[in-house]
Amino acid sequence: MTATILNAKGRLVSEEDTIYTKILNDIAQGKLTSGDRLVTTQLAKAYDTSINPVREALKQLQGEGFVTVLPNSGSRVTKFEFHTMRDVFEILQLLEPYLIEWFIHEHSEAQITALKNVLAEMSNYEHRRIF
């Protein structure tokens, strides 16, 4: 039986969903990079879970193109090529104005103000950051 927890909105989230999110975040943050081998036993240990939720998460990530599974070779983080990444960013640029318009219509003035405050904090942090 799959363990469940409540997310921030009070909805039930399966353990596979949380492992999925953790792996996806690790890919997005560069902790798992293109071509890295994804060993289910190592991931289960790293995320303090059993193998089955890891397998289910990897299947979902494979379906979304983030993980490649090769016969007799196991799972790997998909290798993203320059032109693929360029295409993704071009699509995001095209979608951004529509997403901003949607956000403005769907959220209150207080939520928009809170978002502006977060953006200002991020900007201030970036200017103070030492490389």
TrEMBL record:
Q: Which residues form the signal peptide?
A: none
Domain named HTH gntR-type is located at 13-80
PROSITE patterns, A to Z: HTH_GNTR
Cytoplasm found in the keyword field? no
Which key words are in the record?
DNA-binding, Transcription, Transcription regulation
Checking InterPro entries in the record gives:
Tscrpt_reg_HTH_GntR, WH-like_DNA-bd_sf, WH_DNA-bd_sf
Protein name (database record): GntR family transcriptional regulator
Q: Which organism is it from?
A: Paraglaciecola aquimarina
